[in-house]
Amino acid sequence: MAFNRVERIREEIKRELSSVIRTIKDPRMSAMTSIVEADVTKDLKYAKVYVSVLGTDEDKKNTMEALKSATGYIKREIGSRLDLRCVPHPTFVLDTSIDYGMHINDLLHKIKSEDE
């Protein structure tokens, strides 16, 4: 039963984070930022949030710095939107799975072109 509760809270946090990051007024934030996944610990104290940023490496770096500096604001906003006794402390991690998938796709195309 606890597993279902953690899963529901994880999905709610992911949904709320997606709307909260749109309200951040930091000029370093990229407009093409999205929340990919949110892993919440069983005791609901910490949340590891995977963020995808489309743009250059400089855009990614600036967006991650902006999210790190806005962590207190984000935690406060999530606490006001969700009725939780303990609001998880978010830690933001850059998700590079899209870049990795594009790299694998390029390798497969190279192999295919070499075979032909």
CATH level-four homologous superfamily name: K homology (KH) domain
Indicate the CATH topology: GMP Synthetase, Chain A, domain 3
Strand content: 15-25%
Q: What does the largest sheet look like?
A: 3 strands, mixed
Question: What keyword list fits this structure?
Answer:
53% helix, 3 strands, 3-stranded mixed beta sheet, GMP Synthetase, Chain A, domain 3, flat, 4 helices, alpha+beta, 116 residues
Describe this structure in words.
The protein has 116 residues and is an alpha+beta fold. It has one domain: GMP Synthetase, Chain A, domain 3 (2-Layer Sandwich), CATH 3.30.300. The protein contains 4 helices and 3 strands. It has helices spanning 2-20, 57-69, 71-81, 97-115, and strands spanning 33-40, 46-53, 89-94. A 3-stranded mixed sheet has the order 1-2-3. A hairpin with a 5-residue loop joins strand 1 and strand 2. Helix 1 crosses helix 3. The longest helix has 19 residues, at 2-20. The chain is flat and about 60 Å long. The N and C termini lie far apart (55 Å).
